[in-house]
Design brief:
- There is one protein chain.
- The chain contains 9 helices and 11 strands.
- A hairpin with a 5-residue loop joins strand 9 and strand 10.
- Helix 5 packs across helix 9.
- It has 2 domains: about 90 residues, Phosphorylase Kinase, domain 1; about 200 residues, Aminoglycoside phosphotransferase (APH), C-terminal lobe (Aminoglycoside 3'-phosphotransferase, Chain: A, domain 2, Alpha-Beta Complex), CATH 3.90.1200.
- The strands form 4 sheets. It has a 5-stranded antiparallel sheet with strand order 1-2-3-5-4, sandwiched between helices. A two-stranded antiparallel sheet has the order 6-7.
- Helix content is about 45%, strand content about 15%.
- The protein is an alpha+beta fold.
């Protein structure tokens, strides 16, 4: 696998100096390949099919094409028929983030969300979704083109996972009912979100998917891209550990948030909680059900 990746990058096997394991990945295995031609980041997954890294490479390319944010350069990926599928990226020498670096990330994310590119859209009438379904972590993420944002969020983000949790026995019928009623509440809660129009989203924006290069430059990794409401990325960023306050301040200075964003946050945080409940179970389901109840309470108020 390492030799195949080096060949695809145009690097001789004799130029390889070391293969260093890299921690932090919970879905794929990772290593840094140090060569005389430069360093590379190799990730692989023995359970994955060809599309697994294909959609990741496409997501990184879509983000990079906006020129608003930095992503690792895609060097090569495995081809059909290989025993183990992999993705080779340019290595990002890690650094530590200071307050100005977090502020830069906030400004760059706002620029990403404000970027308009007709070629990135699913179609003139289908504002939301993406040109193909992809993945969030190891889970399928359906992205059928849609013109109704609230319906897209309810039917392509909340209901599929609620159904899977019920079918797998990870939640009770009562809990599934709470999740379904939250999905029913989305049109009332998200009706004004569509006024801002769609943005290209990272889609899985938590602190583990942001790197800071040696000079402090923020780099986005592991996207689950689609076009949706910009507050989705911000809601996830504030869920799992959160980002530095300078990030949020700089984002809001670049593009102030619309009235009602605090109420909509619960609707958008419900999705990653359901993803975690589907993957890990445990307390994530209880958090998701509590968030779904909060969605309903917001609408009732």
């Amino acid at each position: 696998m390492v030799e195949a990746a080096l060949r695809a990058a145009g690097v001789q096997r004799s130029d390889l100096a070391s293969v260093e394991p890299v921690g932090g990945g919970c879905v794929s295995a990772n290593a840094c390949l140090r060569t005389r031609a430069g360093s590379f980041f190799l990730k692989w997954n023995r359970e994955a099919d060809e599309a697994f890294f294909e959609v990741e490479a496409e997501g990184l390319a879509a983000l990079a094409a906006t020129q608003a944010v930095r992503t690792p350069r895609v060097v090569a990926r495995s081809e059909e028929g290989e025993n183990v599928h992999w993705l080779l990226l340019a290595w990002i020498e890690p650094g530590r983030a200071a307050r100005p670096d977090w502020a830069r990330l906030g400004r760059e994310l706002a620029a990403l969300h404000a970027h308009k590119d007709a070629k990135s859209s699913a179609g003139p009438e289908a504002k939301y979704g993406w040109r193909r379904s992809n993945l969030i972590g190891p889970l399928p993420q359906p992205n059928p083109p849609a013109s109704d944002w609230a319906r897209f969020w309810a039917c392509q983000r909340i209901r599929p996972l609620a159904g899977e949790l019920l079918a797998s026995g990870k939640c009770s019928r009562r809990e599934a009912g709470v999740l379904e009623r939250a999905a029913d509440a989305m049109p009332a809660l998200l009706r004004t979100a569509a006024e801002e129009g769609p943005s290209l989203l990272h889609g899985d924006l938590w602190s583990g998917n942001v790197l800071f290069a040696a000079a402090g430059e923020p780099v986005l990794i592991d996207p689950a891209v689609y076009r949706g409401h910009r507050e989705v990325d911000l809601a996830m960023a504030s869920l799992f550990g959160g980002f530095a306050s300078a990030f949020y301040d700089a984002y809001r200075e670049s593009w102030p948030l619309a009235l009602g964003h605090e109420e909509r946050r619960s609707a958008y945080q419900l999705y990653p909680l359901l993803v975690h409940a589907r993957l890990f179970g445990g307390g994530y389901l209880a958090q998701a059900v509590a968030m779904a109840e909060r969605v309903q309470a917001v609408v009732r108020s």
